[in-house]
Amino acid sequence: MAHNLLKGKKGIIFGALDEKSMAWSTALRCVEEGAEIVLTNAPIALRMGEINKLAELCKAPVIPADVTNMDDLKNLFTKSMEHFGGKIDFVLHSVGMSINMRKGKPYTDLDYDFSHKTFDISAMSLHRVLQTAYQLDALNEWASVVALTYIAAQRVFPDYSEMADAKSMLESVARSFGYHYGFKKKVRVNTISQSPTKTTAGSGVKGFDGFMSYAEKMSPLGNASAQQCADYCVAMFSDLTKMVTMQNLFHDGGFSFTGVSAEVIEQMEK
């Protein structure tokens, strides 16, 4: 059900690859709630994914941008403002990649060149996005920026490798830049720590199906879906959350604050 929560707002959605993507679901919900959007992803992801299908559904242009390239980001924000005829009201950062995990390298045997790329793509890219917007004065007052993260930033998940470090850095960037952007333009910057979600990227983590089942049993409300994450993003982009900034917001059915559940105990006692 739509409530016109984003009527008249304009935003950029990073990271939609296919229908499993949280960014894909969020793009559809933003448009349903009255927003106009621009879609963006790295050129290679645009070739591999189905973003043109989403662009047609959302009646949105696609502007390629490598999040590690400042010229690409400057072009993205400049062209987006030209398209909208003004500044931007919200941004979703849904970007992450670990080459070490793709190559099957454990945390105790990292390739550091791969790790640098992981940190640049998955964490420092948020700083690049915010710095570009800040210097171009591309965001309206009370604009909202949301980056998607995971609880591995606070807890150990052995097979999440250096992505856990990247998510910690991502959350730190959101706090630090949120401070400066709040004073400068009243712009809000937050991270959403989502339940394990069966996206194309998430499914590549070793033991993912088993962990999804465990998280479901540990969460009083169960795992949050990509569609529910999209709903939360809409709420964070709306004017109903104008005083929320620099926060890491857990959207995980209560997993983050559950020590152990009766269902898990019963399973262990079998």
From TrEMBL:
The keyword Ribonucleoprotein does not apply. GO terms for biological process: fatty acid biosynthetic process. NAD(+) binds at G15, D66, V67, V95, K167. It catalyses: a 2,3-saturated acyl-[ACP] + NAD(+) = a (2E)-enoyl-[ACP] + NADH + H(+). It comes from the Bacteria. Coiled coil: none annotated. InterPro entries: Enoyl-ACP_Rdtase_NADH, NAD(P)-bd_dom_sf, SDR_fam. Pathway: Lipid metabolism; fatty acid biosynthesis. GO terms for molecular function: enoyl-[acyl-carrier-protein] reductase (NADH) activity. The active site is at Y150 (proton acceptor), Y160 (proton acceptor). Its EC number is 1.3.1.9. This is Enoyl-[acyl-carrier-protein] reductase [NADH]. It comes from Chitinophaga ginsengisoli.
